[in-house]
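> tool_call: predict_assembly(chains=two)
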Amino acid sequence: MEIATVFDFAHDTVIFVVGVTAVLASLGVILCSSPIYCALYLISHMICLALLFLLYNAEFLAVVQIIVYAGAVMILFLFIIALLGGKKEAPENSFHRAAAFAFVFVMLGELYLLATVGPTQQVRGEIPAELFGTAKAIGIELFSKHLVVFELASVLLLVAAVGVMCLAKFSFTLIKKRAR
Amino acid sequence: MATETLNQIWKFTVLFLSENVPLIVGSVKAVVIAVAIMATVPMLVWLERRLMGRFQVRLGPNRVGPLGLAQPLADTVKLLFKESIIQSSADKFLFHLAPAIVVFTAIVGFAVIPFGAPFEAFGQSIEMWGANVNSGILFVFAISGMGIYGMVLAGLASNNKYSLMGGLRASAQMISYELTLGLSALSIIVLTGSLNLTDMVKAQETVPFILIQPLAFFLFYIAGVAETNRAPFDLPEAEQELVAGFHTEYTGMKFAMFFMGEYINMVTMSALVTLLFLGGWNAYGVPVWPIVAFALKVGFLLCVFIWLRSTFPRIRYDRLMTFGWKVLLPLCFLNLLITSALKVI
């Protein structure tokens, strides 16, 4: 009797379990009524995504995903929830209808994507195998081929940051005038 | 029939074990590291109480056992048997989850810390680390960033204004000082050109980085003290104003778990400082084993943690934030700029 190699099976199972957990967690974000639990579901979803990156050998991306999204962004979410008070929201009447519509549109979108993208393919590139997924590979790619795009994106982020400051300041003075 | 099935299972097990040697070695190492790191916590509490006693010109615990060494054992038994009280207005699930997150992230963070050079035993190269992650230092930062959630959730779940304030302070403080921590480590990353902690130790074989980067060392250590919520940066649990902050409502073992997390984080931070700045397990001519050299350095840094606690008063909260953002962060940027400029030239 031939015994199948266990390791691949285990790998696939882990990927499946993590993926399903990610989907369930994202469902929890939408369906949960308490903002604290919503934020927690979002965190667990992001951790699952990081685990998926890790399982596909993209080590650096996984760690960055945890540092930036699960660590920095979500702690600010929780911070704001703590400041505003995490009260449960009363469910609205039109919720079920909205959910149904959203579901149908998402399914249609998925179908369209599936039709255009076609079957999944392996990633092809010139990155050597031993560098795959490390910070070095990503750095070489980013700062050689995509340097202009990268710098443009950083400028865009800077513009967004300045814009947010302007908008916040502007509305602040308006409220002050109204109060007088 | 039954024997045949048993035979099959036996063959399967043997094959599985022989195919997955790295898995088994990894599991054994994980258990050893987790147990060792948790066992250091009571000893560290004892060390802290004894040293604090000496610093404040008193004796410290010296009644239970020789030199008071059985005191941590007695304390552990007491904490285990204490009644766990949860007030009815608390969010039960989050209340239980918070201390678990703190301890879990603290132990996982230690998993990538290398504490000795690899050596040969039983025909195999045994490596003295839980996992040699390629971006090891980033992994430690990511996991320590996740540890904040434990404190924030404890503050949110307790339904107590002091706890909430403590949780808020913890998150604000740790976000602010994480920047300094990461940026001062970045100058070391620039010098070595690697995110791997073992590569960093190898780069310090002749000279430790504390001599090349003294400013980065001080910035990293200060940010590390703030990151582990130790005095003089223990604003989240300031006893006098916040009644112990985020763990006001916790009792028994759950209360002790917050302390376990804090002490394990202290060990991890000392180990990180040793690896980045003090040359890791390089002994620089002193005839000791690499692992002993590493342990001695970490032990010394832990004593410095306690020393700081017993000699500095707590900083006011707004001063803490000003200090982090207006003093430490610009210094970090300056240091990083100069380091990278020198590296390129």
